[in-house]
Write a structure and sequence with these properties.
With 438 residues, the protein is of the alpha/beta class. The protein contains 18 helices and 11 strands. 34% of the residues lie in helices and 13% in strands. A 6-stranded parallel sheet has the order 3-2-1-4-5-6, with helices on both faces. Strands 7-8-9 form a 3-stranded antiparallel sheet, with helices on one face. Strands 10-11 form a two-stranded antiparallel sheet. The structure holds oxidized coenzyme A.
Length: 438
Protein backbone atom coordinates (compact mmCIF):
# COMPACT_ATOMS: atom_id res chain seq x y z
CA UNK A 1 0.00 0.00 0.00
CA UNK A 2 1.43 3.43 -0.91
CA UNK A 3 1.58 5.87 2.00
CA UNK A 4 -0.87 8.12 0.14
CA UNK A 5 -3.57 5.51 0.13
CA UNK A 6 -6.18 5.67 2.88
CA UNK A 7 -5.80 3.04 5.56
CA UNK A 8 -7.83 -0.08 5.05
CA UNK A 9 -10.90 -0.64 7.18
CA UNK A 10 -10.52 -2.89 10.18
CA UNK A 11 -12.34 -6.15 9.50
CA UNK A 12 -14.59 -5.70 12.52
CA UNK A 13 -15.74 -2.25 11.43
CA UNK A 14 -16.36 -2.83 7.75
CA UNK A 15 -18.94 -0.71 6.07
CA UNK A 16 -18.40 2.78 7.52
CA UNK A 17 -17.30 5.80 5.52
CA UNK A 18 -14.43 6.75 7.87
CA UNK A 19 -13.30 3.26 8.87
CA UNK A 20 -9.59 3.29 9.66
CA UNK A 21 -9.45 7.02 10.40
CA UNK A 22 -8.01 7.71 13.85
CA UNK A 23 -8.99 10.86 15.68
CA UNK A 24 -7.12 12.30 18.64
CA UNK A 25 -10.02 14.07 20.30
CA UNK A 26 -8.71 16.88 22.46
CA UNK A 27 -12.08 18.63 22.59
CA UNK A 28 -14.34 19.75 25.43
CA UNK A 29 -17.69 21.43 26.10
CA UNK A 30 -19.85 21.45 22.95
CA UNK A 31 -18.36 22.74 19.68
CA UNK A 32 -15.45 20.30 19.38
CA UNK A 33 -17.28 17.26 20.78
CA UNK A 34 -20.13 17.62 18.25
CA UNK A 35 -17.53 17.49 15.48
CA UNK A 36 -15.75 14.38 16.72
CA UNK A 37 -19.08 12.67 17.51
CA UNK A 38 -20.09 13.07 13.85
CA UNK A 39 -16.76 11.60 12.72
CA UNK A 40 -17.26 8.69 15.13
CA UNK A 41 -20.71 8.04 13.69
CA UNK A 42 -19.09 7.77 10.27
CA UNK A 43 -16.79 5.07 11.63
CA UNK A 44 -13.67 6.94 12.78
CA UNK A 45 -11.94 5.65 15.93
CA UNK A 46 -12.20 8.65 18.27
CA UNK A 47 -9.90 8.67 21.30
CA UNK A 48 -10.88 11.40 23.73
CA UNK A 49 -8.16 12.72 26.01
CA UNK A 50 -9.52 13.92 29.35
CA UNK A 51 -7.98 15.53 32.39
CA UNK A 52 -7.56 12.92 35.15
CA UNK A 53 -10.24 13.06 37.83
CA UNK A 54 -12.59 15.56 36.21
CA UNK A 55 -12.51 14.98 32.48
CA UNK A 56 -14.52 17.12 30.11
CA UNK A 57 -16.08 19.81 32.28
CA UNK A 58 -19.54 19.01 30.90
CA UNK A 59 -19.52 15.62 32.66
CA UNK A 60 -20.43 17.49 35.80
CA UNK A 61 -22.49 20.35 34.38
CA UNK A 62 -26.31 20.58 34.53
CA UNK A 63 -26.44 17.19 36.25
CA UNK A 64 -29.93 15.77 36.67
CA UNK A 65 -28.76 12.70 38.63
CA UNK A 66 -26.07 12.98 41.34
CA UNK A 67 -22.64 11.53 40.47
CA UNK A 68 -23.74 10.43 37.01
CA UNK A 69 -22.38 11.86 33.76
CA UNK A 70 -24.68 14.68 32.71
CA UNK A 71 -26.89 14.47 29.64
CA UNK A 72 -24.88 17.42 28.39
CA UNK A 73 -21.85 15.14 28.20
CA UNK A 74 -23.50 11.87 27.19
CA UNK A 75 -25.40 13.47 24.30
CA UNK A 76 -22.22 14.98 22.78
CA UNK A 77 -19.76 12.13 23.18
CA UNK A 78 -21.27 8.95 21.76
CA UNK A 79 -19.14 6.31 20.04
CA UNK A 80 -15.85 7.57 21.55
CA UNK A 81 -13.17 6.03 23.75
CA UNK A 82 -11.90 7.93 26.79
CA UNK A 83 -8.35 8.02 28.14
CA UNK A 84 -7.49 9.95 31.30
CA UNK A 85 -4.22 11.76 30.67
CA UNK A 86 -2.44 14.65 32.32
CA UNK A 87 -0.69 16.11 29.32
CA UNK A 88 1.42 18.38 31.53
CA UNK A 89 2.99 15.38 33.27
CA UNK A 90 6.18 14.24 31.40
CA UNK A 91 4.90 10.66 31.27
CA UNK A 92 1.55 11.94 30.06
CA UNK A 93 3.32 13.89 27.35
CA UNK A 94 5.04 10.66 26.30
CA UNK A 95 1.64 9.05 25.78
CA UNK A 96 0.32 12.12 24.00
CA UNK A 97 3.28 12.07 21.59
CA UNK A 98 2.63 8.40 20.85
CA UNK A 99 -1.03 9.20 20.15
CA UNK A 100 -0.02 12.04 17.83
CA UNK A 101 2.19 9.63 15.90
CA UNK A 102 -0.65 7.07 15.78
CA UNK A 103 -3.58 9.28 14.75
CA UNK A 104 -4.63 10.99 11.51
CA UNK A 105 -6.39 14.03 12.94
CA UNK A 106 -6.03 16.05 16.14
CA UNK A 107 -9.19 17.99 16.95
CA UNK A 108 -9.16 20.66 19.65
CA UNK A 109 -11.19 23.60 20.84
CA UNK A 110 -9.10 25.01 23.65
CA UNK A 111 -8.81 28.71 24.28
CA UNK A 112 -6.31 30.46 22.00
CA UNK A 113 -2.71 29.69 23.03
CA UNK A 114 -3.45 26.58 25.10
CA UNK A 115 -2.08 24.10 22.55
CA UNK A 116 1.14 26.12 22.19
CA UNK A 117 1.51 26.29 25.98
CA UNK A 118 1.30 22.48 26.03
CA UNK A 119 4.23 22.47 23.60
CA UNK A 120 2.01 21.29 20.76
CA UNK A 121 2.98 23.78 18.10
CA UNK A 122 2.26 22.99 14.47
CA UNK A 123 5.99 22.35 13.87
CA UNK A 124 6.22 19.99 16.83
CA UNK A 125 3.15 18.00 15.77
CA UNK A 126 4.22 17.89 12.16
CA UNK A 127 7.67 16.63 13.01
CA UNK A 128 6.11 13.75 14.94
CA UNK A 129 3.57 13.03 12.22
CA UNK A 130 3.72 14.87 8.88
CA UNK A 131 0.34 13.40 7.86
CA UNK A 132 -1.43 14.79 10.92
CA UNK A 133 -4.36 17.13 10.29
CA UNK A 134 -4.77 19.63 13.12
CA UNK A 135 -8.34 20.89 13.32
CA UNK A 136 -9.35 23.70 15.67
CA UNK A 137 -12.41 25.61 16.74
CA UNK A 138 -11.73 29.11 18.01
CA UNK A 139 -14.15 31.89 18.83
CA UNK A 140 -12.74 34.36 16.33
CA UNK A 141 -10.40 34.14 13.38
CA UNK A 142 -7.20 36.23 13.15
CA UNK A 143 -7.91 39.85 14.06
CA UNK A 144 -8.66 42.05 17.06
CA UNK A 145 -10.60 39.38 18.97
CA UNK A 146 -8.46 36.34 18.20
CA UNK A 147 -7.37 35.86 21.82
CA UNK A 148 -10.89 35.89 23.29
CA UNK A 149 -12.57 32.94 24.93
CA UNK A 150 -15.95 32.35 23.37
CA UNK A 151 -19.13 30.47 24.22
CA UNK A 152 -22.23 29.79 22.12
CA UNK A 153 -24.11 33.02 22.69
CA UNK A 154 -21.03 35.19 22.19
CA UNK A 155 -20.70 33.65 18.74
CA UNK A 156 -24.40 34.13 17.97
CA UNK A 157 -24.01 37.81 18.83
CA UNK A 158 -20.73 38.32 16.97
CA UNK A 159 -21.85 36.38 13.91
CA UNK A 160 -24.83 38.60 13.11
CA UNK A 161 -27.51 36.18 14.28
CA UNK A 162 -28.65 37.98 17.44
CA UNK A 163 -28.97 41.42 15.84
CA UNK A 164 -31.31 39.96 13.23
CA UNK A 165 -33.32 37.67 15.53
CA UNK A 166 -36.32 38.77 17.58
CA UNK A 167 -39.07 41.29 17.06
CA UNK A 168 -38.27 44.76 15.77
CA UNK A 169 -39.50 46.46 18.93
CA UNK A 170 -37.63 44.09 21.25
CA UNK A 171 -33.98 43.41 22.18
CA UNK A 172 -31.68 41.12 20.16
CA UNK A 173 -32.35 37.42 20.80
CA UNK A 174 -30.24 34.28 20.78
CA UNK A 175 -31.75 31.19 19.20
CA UNK A 176 -32.50 27.84 20.83
CA UNK A 177 -30.52 26.02 18.13
CA UNK A 178 -26.83 25.89 19.03
CA UNK A 179 -25.58 27.39 15.80
CA UNK A 180 -22.38 28.69 17.41
CA UNK A 181 -21.26 25.42 18.96
CA UNK A 182 -22.91 22.55 17.09
CA UNK A 183 -22.99 24.63 13.89
CA UNK A 184 -19.25 25.22 14.04
CA UNK A 185 -18.60 21.58 14.94
CA UNK A 186 -20.45 20.62 11.78
CA UNK A 187 -18.39 23.05 9.69
CA UNK A 188 -15.19 21.68 11.21
CA UNK A 189 -16.16 18.09 10.46
CA UNK A 190 -16.55 19.01 6.80
CA UNK A 191 -13.14 20.71 6.83
CA UNK A 192 -11.56 17.59 8.33
CA UNK A 193 -13.10 15.27 5.79
CA UNK A 194 -11.94 17.58 2.97
CA UNK A 195 -8.40 17.68 4.43
CA UNK A 196 -8.35 13.88 4.67
CA UNK A 197 -9.39 13.72 1.03
CA UNK A 198 -6.67 16.19 -0.02
CA UNK A 199 -4.11 14.20 1.95
CA UNK A 200 -4.74 11.28 -0.37
CA UNK A 201 -3.02 13.34 -3.05
CA UNK A 202 -0.47 15.35 -1.08
CA UNK A 203 0.42 12.82 1.60
CA UNK A 204 0.56 15.74 4.07
CA UNK A 205 -1.62 17.02 6.84
CA UNK A 206 -2.76 20.62 7.15
CA UNK A 207 -4.35 22.98 9.64
CA UNK A 208 -8.14 23.34 9.59
CA UNK A 209 -9.61 26.28 11.47
CA UNK A 210 -13.26 27.13 12.05
CA UNK A 211 -13.98 30.33 13.93
CA UNK A 212 -17.38 30.31 15.62
CA UNK A 213 -18.07 33.85 14.43
CA UNK A 214 -17.48 32.71 10.83
CA UNK A 215 -19.63 29.62 11.26
CA UNK A 216 -22.56 31.66 12.57
CA UNK A 217 -22.16 34.26 9.83
CA UNK A 218 -22.17 31.50 7.23
CA UNK A 219 -25.53 30.36 8.60
CA UNK A 220 -26.79 33.96 8.69
CA UNK A 221 -25.66 34.81 5.16
CA UNK A 222 -29.15 35.79 3.97
CA UNK A 223 -28.99 38.69 6.43
CA UNK A 224 -25.78 39.99 4.82
CA UNK A 225 -27.68 39.67 1.53
CA UNK A 226 -30.43 41.86 2.99
CA UNK A 227 -27.89 44.38 4.30
CA UNK A 228 -26.77 45.01 0.73
CA UNK A 229 -30.32 45.05 -0.65
CA UNK A 230 -31.15 47.83 1.83
CA UNK A 231 -28.97 50.22 -0.21
CA UNK A 232 -31.44 49.84 -3.06
CA UNK A 233 -34.69 50.32 -1.20
CA UNK A 234 -36.85 48.82 1.57
CA UNK A 235 -36.97 45.09 2.20
CA UNK A 236 -40.46 44.59 0.89
CA UNK A 237 -40.97 41.08 2.25
CA UNK A 238 -40.35 42.29 5.84
CA UNK A 239 -43.52 43.01 7.82
CA UNK A 240 -41.89 46.31 8.75
CA UNK A 241 -42.49 47.43 5.16
CA UNK A 242 -46.16 46.47 5.01
CA UNK A 243 -46.64 48.16 8.40
CA UNK A 244 -45.38 51.40 6.79
CA UNK A 245 -42.30 51.76 9.02
CA UNK A 246 -39.03 53.05 7.55
CA UNK A 247 -35.83 51.01 7.65
CA UNK A 248 -32.68 52.17 9.43
CA UNK A 249 -29.09 51.66 8.30
CA UNK A 250 -28.78 48.01 9.32
CA UNK A 251 -30.89 44.91 8.73
CA UNK A 252 -33.60 44.93 11.40
CA UNK A 253 -34.95 42.04 13.44
CA UNK A 254 -37.66 40.48 11.32
CA UNK A 255 -39.75 38.57 13.85
CA UNK A 256 -41.13 35.50 12.13
CA UNK A 257 -40.91 36.83 8.58
CA UNK A 258 -39.75 34.25 6.11
CA UNK A 259 -36.10 34.62 5.09
CA UNK A 260 -36.83 33.70 1.48
CA UNK A 261 -38.96 35.32 -1.19
CA UNK A 262 -42.15 33.61 0.00
CA UNK A 263 -43.86 35.54 2.80
CA UNK A 264 -44.60 33.56 5.95
CA UNK A 265 -45.64 34.07 9.58
CA UNK A 266 -46.44 32.10 12.72
CA UNK A 267 -50.18 31.82 13.30
CA UNK A 268 -52.27 30.69 16.24
CA UNK A 269 -54.07 27.36 16.05
CA UNK A 270 -56.86 25.83 18.10
CA UNK A 271 -55.86 25.63 21.76
CA UNK A 272 -53.30 28.46 21.68
CA UNK A 273 -54.85 30.01 24.82
CA UNK A 274 -53.46 27.19 26.99
CA UNK A 275 -50.84 25.44 24.85
CA UNK A 276 -47.74 27.60 24.23
CA UNK A 277 -46.92 25.54 21.14
CA UNK A 278 -50.34 25.55 19.43
CA UNK A 279 -49.01 27.52 16.46
CA UNK A 280 -48.15 26.88 12.83
CA UNK A 281 -45.76 28.51 10.39
CA UNK A 282 -47.78 29.42 7.31
CA UNK A 283 -46.15 30.27 3.96
CA UNK A 284 -48.16 32.09 1.30
CA UNK A 285 -46.20 30.61 -1.59
CA UNK A 286 -47.30 32.30 -4.82
CA UNK A 287 -48.18 29.16 -6.85
CA UNK A 288 -50.71 28.03 -4.19
CA UNK A 289 -52.30 31.42 -3.53
CA UNK A 290 -55.60 30.34 -5.09
CA UNK A 291 -55.73 27.21 -2.91
CA UNK A 292 -55.15 29.40 0.16
CA UNK A 293 -58.03 31.73 -0.84
CA UNK A 294 -60.37 28.74 -1.23
CA UNK A 295 -59.37 27.25 2.11
CA UNK A 296 -59.85 30.38 4.17
CA UNK A 297 -63.11 31.36 2.45
CA UNK A 298 -61.85 34.33 0.40
CA UNK A 299 -62.33 33.12 -3.19
CA UNK A 300 -62.67 36.75 -4.32
CA UNK A 301 -58.97 37.34 -3.54
CA UNK A 302 -58.04 35.00 -6.41
CA UNK A 303 -59.07 37.58 -9.03
CA UNK A 304 -59.09 40.85 -7.05
CA UNK A 305 -56.17 42.94 -8.49
CA UNK A 306 -55.40 44.12 -4.92
CA UNK A 307 -54.55 40.51 -3.91
CA UNK A 308 -53.97 38.57 -7.13
CA UNK A 309 -50.19 39.06 -7.49
CA UNK A 310 -47.37 38.69 -4.92
CA UNK A 311 -46.43 42.36 -5.37
CA UNK A 312 -50.01 43.51 -4.75
CA UNK A 313 -50.10 41.43 -1.56
CA UNK A 314 -46.80 42.64 -0.10
CA UNK A 315 -48.11 45.89 1.42
CA UNK A 316 -51.03 44.01 3.06
CA UNK A 317 -49.20 41.02 4.56
CA UNK A 318 -50.26 41.85 8.12
CA UNK A 319 -53.95 41.90 7.20
CA UNK A 320 -53.64 38.81 5.01
CA UNK A 321 -52.00 36.75 7.75
CA UNK A 322 -54.61 37.99 10.25
CA UNK A 323 -57.33 36.64 7.95
CA UNK A 324 -55.53 33.30 7.48
CA UNK A 325 -55.16 33.09 11.26
CA UNK A 326 -58.93 33.36 11.71
CA UNK A 327 -59.02 30.08 9.80
CA UNK A 328 -56.04 28.35 11.47
CA UNK A 329 -57.52 29.15 14.90
CA UNK A 330 -60.43 26.85 14.09
CA UNK A 331 -58.09 23.86 13.61
CA UNK A 332 -55.30 22.13 15.55
CA UNK A 333 -51.80 22.54 14.12
CA UNK A 334 -51.87 18.94 12.96
CA UNK A 335 -55.23 19.44 11.19
CA UNK A 336 -53.83 22.53 9.44
CA UNK A 337 -50.78 20.46 8.45
CA UNK A 338 -52.94 17.73 6.94
CA UNK A 339 -55.37 20.03 5.13
CA UNK A 340 -52.69 22.34 3.72
CA UNK A 341 -50.26 19.66 2.63
CA UNK A 342 -53.07 17.92 0.73
CA UNK A 343 -53.11 20.99 -1.56
CA UNK A 344 -49.33 21.62 -1.46
CA UNK A 345 -49.40 24.63 0.88
CA UNK A 346 -46.12 24.60 2.87
CA UNK A 347 -46.79 24.85 6.63
CA UNK A 348 -44.80 23.89 9.71
CA UNK A 349 -46.36 22.88 13.02
CA UNK A 350 -44.50 24.34 16.01
CA UNK A 351 -43.40 21.08 17.65
CA UNK A 352 -42.48 21.06 21.30
CA UNK A 353 -39.47 19.03 22.46
CA UNK A 354 -41.99 16.73 24.17
CA UNK A 355 -43.73 16.07 20.85
CA UNK A 356 -40.39 15.50 19.12
CA UNK A 357 -39.24 13.11 21.84
CA UNK A 358 -42.43 11.09 21.36
CA UNK A 359 -42.43 11.19 17.54
CA UNK A 360 -42.53 7.64 16.20
CA UNK A 361 -41.18 8.49 12.75
CA UNK A 362 -38.08 10.18 14.19
CA UNK A 363 -37.44 7.06 16.28
CA UNK A 364 -37.78 4.87 13.19
CA UNK A 365 -35.18 6.82 11.21
CA UNK A 366 -32.70 6.83 14.10
CA UNK A 367 -32.84 10.62 14.46
CA UNK A 368 -34.16 10.20 17.99
CA UNK A 369 -32.52 7.22 19.69
CA UNK A 370 -32.88 5.57 23.09
CA UNK A 371 -29.49 4.67 24.56
CA UNK A 372 -28.66 2.61 27.63
CA UNK A 373 -25.93 3.84 29.98
CA UNK A 374 -24.39 1.81 32.82
CA UNK A 375 -24.80 4.44 35.53
CA UNK A 376 -27.60 6.61 34.10
CA UNK A 377 -29.92 3.98 32.61
CA UNK A 378 -31.97 4.74 29.50
CA UNK A 379 -32.02 8.19 27.94
CA UNK A 380 -32.94 9.78 24.64
CA UNK A 381 -30.47 11.37 22.29
CA UNK A 382 -30.29 12.76 18.79
CA UNK A 383 -28.64 10.29 16.43
CA UNK A 384 -26.71 11.09 13.27
CA UNK A 385 -28.86 13.48 11.22
CA UNK A 386 -26.84 12.60 8.09
CA UNK A 387 -28.10 9.35 6.59
CA UNK A 388 -25.90 7.40 4.20
CA UNK A 389 -26.99 4.31 2.29
CA UNK A 390 -23.65 2.52 2.77
CA UNK A 391 -22.47 3.83 6.13
CA UNK A 392 -25.06 3.18 8.80
CA UNK A 393 -24.62 5.02 12.12
CA UNK A 394 -25.07 2.99 15.25
CA UNK A 395 -25.28 5.17 18.37
CA UNK A 396 -23.11 3.78 21.17
CA UNK A 397 -23.16 5.28 24.66
CA UNK A 398 -20.56 7.82 25.72
CA UNK A 399 -17.52 6.45 27.59
CA UNK A 400 -17.08 6.72 31.34
CA UNK A 401 -14.11 8.85 32.36
CA UNK A 402 -10.94 6.92 31.60
CA UNK A 403 -12.88 3.81 30.65
CA UNK A 404 -10.43 2.95 27.88
CA UNK A 405 -7.17 4.13 29.45
CA UNK A 406 -5.71 0.63 29.82
CA UNK A 407 -7.03 -0.53 26.47
CA UNK A 408 -5.42 2.42 24.68
CA UNK A 409 -2.04 2.07 26.38
CA UNK A 410 -1.92 -1.68 25.89
CA UNK A 411 -3.83 -2.52 22.70
CA UNK A 412 -3.65 0.70 20.70
CA UNK A 413 -0.20 2.06 21.56
CA UNK A 414 1.13 -1.40 22.37
CA UNK A 415 3.24 -0.12 25.27
CA UNK A 416 5.04 -2.85 27.23
CA UNK A 417 3.74 -3.60 30.74
CA UNK A 418 6.77 -1.98 32.38
CA UNK A 419 6.15 1.29 30.57
CA UNK A 420 2.47 1.18 31.48
CA UNK A 421 3.36 0.69 35.12
CA UNK A 422 5.70 3.67 35.02
CA UNK A 423 3.07 5.85 33.38
CA UNK A 424 0.51 4.87 36.01
CA UNK A 425 2.94 5.35 38.87
CA UNK A 426 3.65 8.88 37.65
CA UNK A 427 -0.04 9.80 38.11
CA UNK A 428 -0.35 10.76 34.43
CA UNK A 429 -3.46 8.65 33.98
CA UNK A 430 -5.15 9.27 37.32
CA UNK A 431 -7.28 6.47 38.64
CA UNK A 432 -8.60 4.71 35.53
CA UNK A 433 -12.17 3.56 35.93
CA UNK A 434 -13.13 0.64 33.82
CA UNK A 435 -16.42 -0.98 33.17
CA UNK A 436 -16.82 -4.55 32.06
CA UNK A 437 -18.00 -4.73 28.48
CA UNK A 438 -21.78 -4.42 28.34
N1 LIG B 1 -4.09 17.62 30.98
C1 LIG B 1 -3.57 18.75 31.51
N2 LIG B 1 -4.06 19.97 31.27
C2 LIG B 1 -5.13 20.06 30.45
C3 LIG B 1 -5.71 18.93 29.85
C4 LIG B 1 -5.15 17.66 30.14
N3 LIG B 1 -5.66 16.52 29.65
N4 LIG B 1 -6.76 19.31 29.09
C5 LIG B 1 -6.84 20.64 29.21
N5 LIG B 1 -5.85 21.09 30.01
C6 LIG B 1 -5.58 22.46 30.44
C7 LIG B 1 -5.05 23.30 29.30
O1 LIG B 1 -3.69 23.11 29.10
C8 LIG B 1 -5.44 24.68 29.76
O2 LIG B 1 -4.49 25.14 30.70
P1 LIG B 1 -3.63 26.51 30.57
O3 LIG B 1 -4.62 27.61 30.38
O4 LIG B 1 -2.90 26.58 31.88
O5 LIG B 1 -2.72 26.40 29.41
C9 LIG B 1 -6.77 24.44 30.48
O6 LIG B 1 -6.78 23.07 30.84
C10 LIG B 1 -8.05 24.59 29.66
O7 LIG B 1 -8.00 25.53 28.83
P2 LIG B 1 -9.23 26.43 28.28
O8 LIG B 1 -8.78 27.85 28.46
O9 LIG B 1 -9.51 25.98 26.90
O10 LIG B 1 -10.51 26.12 29.20
P3 LIG B 1 -11.55 27.15 29.83
O11 LIG B 1 -12.51 26.30 30.57
O12 LIG B 1 -10.88 28.21 30.61
O13 LIG B 1 -12.25 27.85 28.57
C11 LIG B 1 -13.60 27.89 26.53
C12 LIG B 1 -13.32 27.20 27.90
C13 LIG B 1 -14.63 27.06 25.83
C14 LIG B 1 -14.11 29.31 26.76
C15 LIG B 1 -12.28 27.93 25.71
O14 LIG B 1 -11.75 26.64 25.64
C16 LIG B 1 -12.45 28.48 24.30
O15 LIG B 1 -12.59 29.68 24.09
N6 LIG B 1 -12.43 27.58 23.30
C17 LIG B 1 -12.50 27.97 21.91
C18 LIG B 1 -13.90 28.33 21.51
C19 LIG B 1 -14.89 27.22 21.78
O16 LIG B 1 -14.76 26.10 21.37
N7 LIG B 1 -15.96 27.59 22.46
C20 LIG B 1 -17.11 26.71 22.56
C21 LIG B 1 -17.27 26.14 23.87
S1 LIG B 1 -18.87 25.40 23.96
O17 LIG B 1 -19.88 26.64 24.30
Amino acid sequence: MSKNEPKKAAATEAGKALDGVRILDFTHVQSGPTCTQLLAWFGADVIKIEKPGTGDITRGQLRDIPDVDSLYFTMLNHNKRSIELDTKNPKGKEVLDALIAYCDVLVENFAPGVLDRMGLTWDYIHKLNPRMIVASVKGFGPGPYEDCKVYENVAQCAGGSASTTGFRDGPPLVTGAQIGDSGTGLHLALGIVAALYQRNTTGKGQKVLCAMQDGVLNLARVKLRDQQRLAHGPLKEYRQHSDGLPFGKAVPRSGNDSGGGQPGWILKCKGWETDPDAYIYFITQAPVWEAICDLIGEPGWKTDPGYKTPNARLPKLGAIFARIEQWTMTKTKFEVMEICNAVDIPVGPILSMKEIAEDESLRKTGTVVEVDHPTRGKYLTVGNPIKMSDSASEVKRSPLLGEHTDEILRDVLKFPEKQIEEIKASGATGQAKRMAAE
